[in-house]
Every structure is written in C-alpha cells, then in structure tokens.
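Troubleshooting log. The previous structure file for this entry was overwritten by mistake, so regenerating from the original sequence record. Sequence copied from the archived sheet and checked twice against the printout by T.R.
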Amino acid sequence: MIVRSFVAWSETAGASQKARATAALARAYLHSEFGDSERGDAEIAMTSLLDDGSAVVRRALAETLADSDLAPHHIIVALANDQSDIALPVLRRSPVLTQGDLIDCAAIGDTFAQSAIALRRDLSAPVSAALAEVGGREALIALAVNHDAVIAEASLTRMLERFGHDGEMREAILARRNLSPCLRARIVEATVRSLSAFVTGCDWMSEERVARAGREAREKAVIIIASDLEDRASDIGDLVSYLRGSSQLTGALVLRSLLSGDSRLLEAALVELSGFSAARVAGLVRTRRGAGFRALFVRAGLPDWLFAPVNAALATMEELGDRGSANRDGGLHRALIEPVLAACEGLANQKVADHELAPVIAMLRRFQAEAAREEARIATRHFLTPVMIAPQPALPCIDIDLDAMEAEILRDAA
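Regenerated output below.
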C-alpha cells in the first residue's frame, strides 16, 4: 500500500522531492523486511523511475543501489547504460554487474563510463582485454594505474600498440608490478620511437644521428632489463626471443652486453639462434678456443665481424674475474673495452679482415668514450658530495689567476 501511494504521489512531486523519496524507497527495498507483494511493488516502482525525465531522480536511484548485491539486475543494467553521470556509480561499484555486462558497457560507453569500469576493484582479465581494445586514452591510463585489475600481458601490449606514443600511458604501465622483461623492452621501444619522432620533428639533429642515439639508448635499456633478471634463464630467453622478433637482436647489442660484464645475453642469443641447448652453448662458450665455438657462431648466423671482439671480451672477462662483473646500471667497463679494442686494432694492423674491423674499432672507440664520460660523471659526483653536504658560508667574489692555477696543476702533474 505504501509503495502504491508513493507511485501516485510521485506523479505530481517536484524533482528534488522525488529524488529524496526515490532514495528512501531504494533503501527500504534493500534493508526493510518487505513481504513478497510489497517487494514486488517496490521493484515495479523503481523500474518505472528508470523512465523519469529528471536525471536527479535516476541518479538518486543509482547512488542508493550501487553498492548492494541485492539490487535487481535489470535495474542496475538499465542504470549502467544511462547517461554517464548516472551510470558512473553503478559502473564503478555495483557487484550485480556481470563480466558480460561490463564488456557490453565498455563497448558503447564514453570515456567517463570506460574509466569508471577501469577503476573497479578486482577487475577481471576479460574486461581488461575489452577495454584495451576499445577504451580511450584516459580510460586505459585509469586501467593501468588500477593495481587491483588483472591485466594480461597481451592486453598491456595492445595498450602500448594503441597509445605507446603517450608518455603518461607508458609511465602508468611501467609502474605496474611484475612486468615481464619483454613488456619492459616494448615500453623502451615505444619511448625511443616517440622521442626520436619529436627530436626529428624539431629538426634538432639529423635523422642518422637520431637513429644512432635511439638505438644506443635502447641497447642500454635492454641491458639494464637483462641485468635485473638475475639467473632466470627462461626470462632472458623470452627477452631474446622478443628482441629477435622485433629485429633488435644485433651484434652491437650483444657486444655492448659483454662489455658491460654480462655474458648471459650472448649465451641466450646463441641458444635462440642455433637451436642448441643452454648447457651445450655454455660449454662451447667456456671452451671457446676450439673450433666448436667458431662453428657455433656460424650456425647461429652471427656476423663474422663479431667473432674477434666477442672472443677478446670473453677472455678479458675471464682474466678480470669479479672486477669485470656486470653493473646493475648496465654501464660499460673500460677495463673490458680497452683490451678488446687493442686486440681488434692488432688484427687490423695485420691486415686481417681490415675492411670488417674498421667499423668495429670505431664502435669500440665510441664505447670507450662513453665509459670514460660515465666514469668522469661518477668521479665528479664523488668530488662534489662533501662540498654539497657541508654548510657553505657566503663568500665574496674573488678574482682567480688562471695562469697561476694552470702552472700549479702542471707542476703537480709532473
């Protein structure tokens, strides 16, 4: 009887009054001990309110029913497909909506609706996959920052394919826990493409110089990713497979990895390219002075120019021991580069494959300069740290006799 009276009264009530009464009716439906008849009448009344011309009334219904698992499914679905400001609380919180409902709403909803779905707690992988395919930029950033959402690697990859040029998207994905090395490498690749396009578009560098800078930055990042994998052979194998498939598994990358003190990328590349087992490759690398190592190189299809520097790098790593071990930051070791450079220059002086070794020597000299600059940066920070930490009194401006300073430096050096 009360519900029937509500329906009659609502025909002439104002929007604000009707909204308050609608919320009260919905709360009564959820929490009062209605009989079957009253419960049916209340459900009919709420269903009729879905056609109310006032958004305020429908929003009051959505807000009241959004958190309850007792809300009628058909009412929740209708509210979820209403205009965004009404649908948002239901899409964001309602436990009544099924996986299929959410996928359907994501397909037809605007960015606000998609973002509300993306921020749901414990979002399932199929819904995340649907959003990855059809969601707008803001919705996918919301999905990436929702650490309760289950997002398959294929969905994250699809998000990068669609919006990898967007810095906020890359940052949001990178902040997710337990990203695979392949996905991290994809983020690096997307970042390099985006920055290269920006620099080229601004005409700050030639296209050739931008390409080299991007390639070297990508190689450094890959080596850092590989260094984080510790001894998980399956992960580095997956990374190498991705690099091969994306044409990033180059001789320069393998050599840079070795000169950073890590031979695992070389071994994983030889396993990937040769088809031999990891144990067999490791054995041939350890006994590389025999013909078997050369035959492994040939089978793997690695370029001939790579053999001499790789051989020299492995010999130097063996000689240096812990002093030549990998840096966590993927930095190059001058102690590794210089013996390899000397070995290649010696071969070139003997006229052994001089035309092939010339570009290798040029690359090694670039590596040497890069390592020297990084060492200088570290040393400079070390020199400045005590000065920066200690409180410095204000000093008057002092004229410096540069000639006297130069003479003193030369005298100390002598």
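The CA atoms of residues 385 and 393 lie 16 Å apart. Archived copy saved in two places this time.
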